[in-house]
Design a protein that fits this description.
about 180 residues, mainly alpha
Length: about 180
């Protein structure tokens, strides 16, 4: 079990995601602050459905592959965590430096969660198929939709934030595995 390698690979993917997030923040500002919870869930859903479609069809007519969609899921997952914390806004209400600080904090929390879970699960993610990550992400999104429909009034389930964290971590694993397979 090489948890140090996993930590390094995870951090490498998160650095790649951060770089893209920062560039998009430059281009668009924090326009995502306007997204209401259901809209953000749907954005994550279409990314995950596209991954599943590409896995099944094995052909992309748009020209982008699966890995960029995992990167998008990671970044939108972090946006989701920020939105839960701050609520949605009617207009952009944070500057780029504040957005990056929030991004970095949630990315660090995702890393810490992964390290704790990876310790308990003994690197089981390495033996899994990438398609399983996709299915688990879609399952998490269905759960989020149900929680949203219940307006958060669950009886025993984890909240939306825990599901976002799992989506982020599964997407990082997918990005790592697809890099390893190149």
């Amino acid at each position: 079990m090489d948890t140090k390698k996993t930590e390094q690979q995870f951090e490498s993917v998160m650095d790649e995601c951060r770089t893209l997030f920062e560039k998009k923040l430059h281009d668009y500002g924090a326009s995502w602050r306007i997204l209401r919870p259901a809209s953000l869930t749907d954005q994550l859903f279409i990314k995950a459905k596209r991954i599943r479609s590409l896995e099944i069809k094995r052909e992309s007519r748009v020209g982008e592959g699966i890995r960029p969609e995992f990167i998008a899921l990671i970044n939108y997952g972090i946006v989701g965590l920020i939105q839960i914390e701050r609520g949605f806004a009617d207009e952009v209400d944070i500057d780029n430096s504040e957005a990056m600080a929030l991004y970095d904090r949630h990315a660090k929390e995702a890393l810490q969660l992964m390290l704790r879970k990876n310790h308990d699960y003994d690197e089981a993610w390495r033996a899994m198929r990438v398609s399983s990550y996709t299915d688990f992400i879609l399952t998490k999104l269905q759960r989020i939709k149900e929680i949203e429909d219940l307006e958060g009034a669950t009886l025993v389930s984890e909240g939306i934030d825990a599901n976002y964290m799992d989506i982020i971590n599964y997407a990082v694993f997918g990005a790592i595995k697809l890099t390893d397979n190149e």
